[in-house]
Write a structure and sequence with these properties.
This protein is mainly alpha-helical. Helices cover 64% and strands 6% of the residues. The protein contains five helices and two strands. It has a two-stranded antiparallel sheet. The termini are far apart.
Length: 196
């Protein structure tokens, strides 16, 4: 009886089960992943999409290689027709490049290393100069803010009547009352003079 169908038409052997399940499978709605021809993509939007997906994929694979195997590697990707650079390095791109340049016996590579050091130092110097300028600007702004605050405080002390009423002392409130009374009397006199 082995290899024969049982009364409810379910196959008994593994091969028959596989064939049976294969026949039951629904037809695919899409064609799935296709192998694409390796030629440069001309359409800019398709190019951007392909670049983004493949860049993500290669950087993900690099990260996985570092995580799974403890490898040290660097990947640098320049975007087509853009000024963007994407990189991944474990422990860092700079550390991997420095390690590569130090291990290379080529005298040109030592020149390249010297050139990289010069560039790095120039960039660091430029960044330090920018930082110094920004710190000087910040200090000047802080000093200007202090001077403005000092002027405000002096004006508030000289013009005590500009203070909010809640901040006035008893003497200042009495002075304000006298001043307001004088202004009221002046306004009344001035109004009477116009009506007569």
């Amino acid at each position: 009886m082995e290899g024969k169908m049982n009364p409810i038409n379910i196959p008994n052997s593994l091969q028959e089960k596989t064939t049976f399940l294969h026949k039951l499978r629904m037809p695919r709605k899409s064609e799935g992943r296709k192998k694409i021809e390796m030629v440069k993509i001309e359409n800019p939007s398709n190019l951007a999409v392909a670049f983004t997906k493949r860049r993500f994929g290669i950087l993900k694979k690099a990260s996985e290689l570092c995580t799974l195997c403890g490898a040290q590697l660097a990947v640098i990707v320049f975007a087509p027709k853009q000024e963007k650079v994407y990189s991944f390095g474990s422990p860092s791109v700079e550390a991997i490049i420095n390690r590569y340049l130090q291990q290379s016996p080529d005298p040109q590579s030592s020149r390249a290393s010297q050139f990289m050091d010069i560039l790095r130092n120039a960039n660091i110097q430029e960044l330090n100069n920018q930082l110094t300028n920004k710190l000087e600007q910040l200090e000047a702004e802080k000093n200007a803010a202090k001077e403005l605050q000092k002027i405000r405080e002096e004006n508030q002390q000289n013009n005590w009547w500009d203070k909010p009423i809640e901040e006035m002392g008893l003497e200042e409130l009495e002075q304000l009352k006298v001043a307001m009374t004088e202004i009221k009397e002046y306004a009344e006199r001035h109004a009477e003079g116009r009506t007569t």
